[in-house]
Amino acid sequence: MTGRQRRAPLRAPDVVGNLVALLLVTCAASATLWPSYQSRAFVIMVAGGFLLGATVAVLGARFRWPAWLVILMSIGGFGIVGVPLAVPARAVNGVLPTTEGVRELFTATVLGWKQLVTIALPVGDYQALLVPALILVLGSTVVGLSVALRSAHGELAVLAPVGLFLAGILLGPSRAARPVELGLAFLVLLLGWLLWFRWRRRAAATRLVAAQSTRTIESVSDRRLAGARRLVSAAVIVALAIGGGTAASIAVPPTGVRDVVRSHVQQPFNPNDYASPLSAFRSYLQSPTVDETLFEVTGLPAGALLRLATLDSYNGVVYSVGSDDAEAESASGSVESGSFTRLPYRLDQSAVDGDDVVLQVEVFGYTGVWVPGTGQLEQVVFGGDTAVARSDSFYYNDVGGSAAVLGGLTRGDRYESRSVVPTFDGNLADALPGSALLPPVTVPDGMLSALERARQAGQGPGERLQAMLADLIAEGYISHGVGADEPVSRSGHGADRLTELFTDVPMLGDAEQYAVAAAILARGLGFPARVVLGFAPDATADPAGAVTVTGADVTAWLEVQTSADGWVTVDPNPAVREVPAKEPDDPTVVSRPQSVLPPPVVDTEDPSDAPPPDTSVEDPPAPIDPLLELLFAVLRITGLSLLALFVLLSPVIAMVVIKSRRRYLRRSRGTPAARIAGGWREFADTVTDFNGLSAAGMTRAELAESVGGVPTVGGTPPVVFAGLVDRAVFAPGPSSSADADRVWASVGALRRSLAVEHTRRDRLRALLSLRSFGRYAGGRKSTRGAGIRGAGAES
Asked: Which residues form the Transglutaminase-like domain (predicted)?
């Protein structure tokens, strides 16, 4: 019977069962999209998208709509409910769509995908970025439910939520949250839906046989017993799948980092397109910028610093944000330091231990792409006439805490930022280096002696770091070199300028040179370090008071990462004090009379006491054979592939083993009469697995007639075989082992005959079928005399 005949008209249990199963699977699949949104609007969108998709699919199945009409109705429903679900900000009272909302809705169907992978997560309900998720949920629901209700192969419906599950991973963040738990939950729900399909198909086959028979096929108790057996079988398969998945996760633990789409999409803001902000350090100290009001800040705590940009890559000429060498970034792990993404909604900074700070900033004379701020940003809201433009062009890098606006800030821009400023209460002398990966740096030759002194100054890394900073502060003097009364101090922070800083007496420079020098020396001591350019305004103790920031407040400082406290702010700049006169390059040598010293006492050492010279030569490590290395790689990949294949095929293998074990016990255990009865049960189970017919309540002759004239392969036709079993069971004398062997030979021949009659796919389906576990061919166990007379009801 064809799938169309079997499924027309729709049965309410089929519709309800598929709806519930698809709802559960869709919820699990949509969980992969949650890290991208994390808002109440996303939950509403998933619910509305599923409801719309289910309505279209059920109506399409009920009235037999063609595929083009189902697609057309889905698009129409998408246009009607898309704005309140996916662009709620453009809906009147959150319900009625507006013209602007409809325009953004259909524009986002094309452009929203790239916007979603070039923006900081989570996005909430920002603009129309919920549209891609709505399309995925709606499409998955319509396709999945339509296939489940209308196709003869309804099991293929599971592919729709699988696609949703994978799409959520590809569009999501690169760091996975609970990947094993989510994957196992999704797998269990998929298996449950597939088992439900099998159970409904068996029920349909039972109803068909009942409609063609005048006898009662299954009693209430029989159905309950069959249901219990199917439930146990399903539980075993699910347990095997969970066990296999857990074993695989233990053998090959997930790294927590995924290769997703956003990892390969070029970000719109590239800091390497702009000059290093530290190169313009001296420009802030020159007239008229030095006395000009750059911006006013309200809410800045006393003594707090304003970050302009974080720089972590040094090429010997300039310190910059990230590296302009893609290969160097990838190798060092600094790709994230130069990666800026949109910040439409908020960032979760709950893991940062610090103080909450809310700043209100109004821009006056400052111009530039870098946005002043403090701490780790949670949310920023722009105001004024340029609010929309600035919000759409705002980018943020959470690794370095730097923010930027394409096109730059100008006079009149206003914004409010909410941040968490980390606190450090520990002792730097006790600190141990952190594990951040930064681009490699080379210490200039003129700084090697200072680095060697720092390495010998303390026992631990923290003590050496503290000693280096103390020497820098003690020996250094501040001079910007821009005033008429200031000593000459060259700008820049290249390797030649740093060599000059450490070779001149006195050491003369400003924050540009000292911060870079301290960062390079800290790197030489093993600490991840970076330079921060910003401002140190004279903030009042009252955070509510407005603070005026001028060019004279510009400064630079050092951040080092420790293993216990993360990135710690350190000020490496000497205090402003009077600069002593510079020593001449070729000072006059004053001759002094030499004192006559007695000759030194020669300490002769007995050669016999001297240790023998070490003549041992350490053998260099033997090179690894390339062929052997290739062999190990092939074996490792093969082993992982076989493990993954075993996990996927574990339910199939389990089913084959269980059926083989059942057949072996029926054939080898018990008396000859029990073996004969077991042979008939094996034949009845084979018929059930192949044809979906329930043998419950049928005599052996009826079951044999239902099979029909199966072309035998060197064996006995089903009707003759049924009579053979009846004679062996009901004969007055006991059955012999030879009788049992003949019965089982006939069982094997009939199994081969049924296999020849069906296609390869049917044979595979019968091998994996659970129908025979729902109701054995024999029903309840009985003794030889009374219990085997109902051929189909015996087990």
From this structure: 502-574
Domain containing 662: what range?
178-252+643-795
Q: What is the largest CA-CA distance in the chain?
A: 139
Computed on alpha carbons and rounded to an integer, the radius of gyration of the chain in Å comes to: 39
Q: What is the CB-side half-sphere exposure of residue 277 using CA atoms within 13 A?
A: 27
Query: Could you identify the residue written with the tokens 């952190």?
Result: 434
Residue showing tokens 């489940």:
148
**How many structural domains does the chain have?**
3
- Residue whose tokens read 């890559």: 313
3-state secondary structure of 619: coil
Last residue of a domain, one of 114, 148, 177: 177
Cα-Cα-Cα-Cα dihedral of 750, 754, 760, 765, to 10°? -100
Q: Is residue 228 part of a domain?
A: yes
Give the strand pairing for 566-570 and 778-780. unpaired
- Asked if residue 793 and residue 648 are part of one domain, the reply reads yes
- The candidate with the shortest Cα–Cα distance to 675, out of 683, 667, 665, 663, is 667
Burial class (CB in 10 A: 0-12, 13-18, 19+), 699: middle
**Which residues are paired to 397 by β-bridges?**
402
Q: Are 286 and 550 in contact (CB under 8 A)?
A: no
pTM, two decimal places: 0.56
Q: Which residues contact 734 (CB under 8 A, 6 or more apart)?
A: 671, 672, 673
β-sheet bridge partners, residue 257: 175
* Co-location of 729 and 713 in the same domain: yes
For residues 131 and 677, the model is more confident at 131
Q: How far apart are CA 10 and CA 693, in angstroms?
A: 22
Count CB neighbours of 439 within 10 A: 20
Residues 236 and 380 in one domain: no
- Give the distance from CA 384 to its chain's centroid: 38
| Residue 486 confidence (pLDDT) above 80 | yes
What HEC string does 178-200 produce?
CHHHHHHHHHHHHHHHHHHHHHH
Give dist(CA 148, CA 705) in Å, integer: 33
Which pLDDT tens digit goes with each residue over 504-550? 889 999 999 999 999 999 999 999 999 999 999 986 655 667 899 99
Measured distance CA(194)–CA(585) in Å, rounded: 87
Please list the residues that pair with 453 across neighbouring strands: none
Do 349 and 399 contact (CB within 8 A), yes or no? no
Question: Of 362, 344, 349, nearest to 419 (Cα)?
Answer: 349
Clarify whether residues 65 and 81 are in a common domain: yes
Q: How many CA atoms lie within 13 A of 468 on its CB side?
A: 35
Most confident of 453-467, 683-697, 730-744, 769-783: 453-467
- CA dist list (Å): 448 to 452, 509, 531, 573, 689: 6, 18, 20, 20, 81
Residue 307 forms beta bridges with which residues?
373, 534
**Same domain membership, residue 313 and residue 412:** yes
Q: Could you count the other beta carbons within 10 Å of the beta carbon of residue 201?
A: 16
| Cα–Cα distance measured from residue 424 to residue 431, given in angstroms and rounded to the nearest whole number | 11
Q: For 551-625, where are the E strands, in sequence order?
A: 554-562, 566-570
pLDDT grade for 209, boundaries at 50, 70 and 90: low
Mean residue pLDDT across the chain: 79
d(CA 516, CA 318): 9
